[in-house]
Description:
Blueprint: E1 3-10, E2 13-20, E3 31-32, E4 58-61, H1 80-94, H2 103-117, H3 130-133, H4 135-149
Parallel strand pairs: 3-4
Antiparallel strand pairs: 1-2, 2-4
Amino acid sequence: MREQEGFIPVGEYRVWYRIVGGGADHEDIPLLTLHGGPGIPHDYISDMAALASDTRRVIFYDQLGCGRSDQPNNPSLWTIERTVAEIDTVRRALITSGRYDESTPLLNEVLHNGIAGSEWVLFEQSSHMAHVEERELYLSTVKAFIEHCC
């Protein structure tokens, strides 16, 4: 499976990314994963690499201040607005360049209508960490969602 990693400039700082999968002549819309935080790197969601294939890239990145990304000591950076702008910078750098432009309408729809249009999945036997406690069910649910919408 193809893998690539590097850094993306975000303002005066850099955030680290890793891409798993891809390489086919026609690729499906990539999956950009977002870890929790603040201060928690992507490592605990690395199992989502199992969703990657030659036709679908799974993209991990460490948000500013986490993991392998720059870790500035500046509390004024930790705002929702800056975090949303960071995600948009990562999206533009890794998803909507070249052949991924088709993802923009879907991504915008999900971002703007996500809460109201969401279908919530209950993981009966887990606390708040279904991705850890019920890994197989979690991954199969995410895979089914991707196959349904993307």
